[in-house]
Amino acid sequence: MELCKLEPVDVWRLLIPERMQLFEDDMPGDELIFRYRDSVYFVHDDGAVIALPAPAHLEQLSLGGFLEHVMTAEETVDFDEQGMFDIGTILRRIGFVVSCTGRRDQGDYQVEIVDALVVGQTIASYYLTGVTFTFALYHGLLCCSHLNELAEENGEFEVKRIIRCHFPHSDSEKQQKMVYDDTCT
Fold it and tell me: pLDDT at residue 161 above 90?
């Protein structure tokens, strides 16, 4: 799947389970509100993310009531204002985790990472075996976050694509075939 062409909110939707998404029937397609642990996150159309503590009566709120609550809440966190622009950094900050076992849709994936400031060059390519697509995406985003920290302002890393692969090995061999480019570890 080509991820470079997706809007940030679409990448978030690939990560966030539907059960955690709020007001999905009332939200415009280019924005997302979701709940994780004790907080609510609002992903704007430009990819900016705002966090606030989940109100006690969240389940009774309409979208309008929730947006009114956001405008008056004093404990909001604007990740852009804190210099956190990439999804992986925000995932790390909020402690978001994705399960890598126990699902029927596990497979083998190749993750390709590019520097958006250098056209046409793959920076890292690695394989994950026996994981879900969601975990491969999550891992790739965390890798990009790590590379962005190392590069400071001299790079802008993003997951270019995630390709489902097939290794013709037994299950025990597949478990041992997890290969990483050491750029991302």
Answer: yes
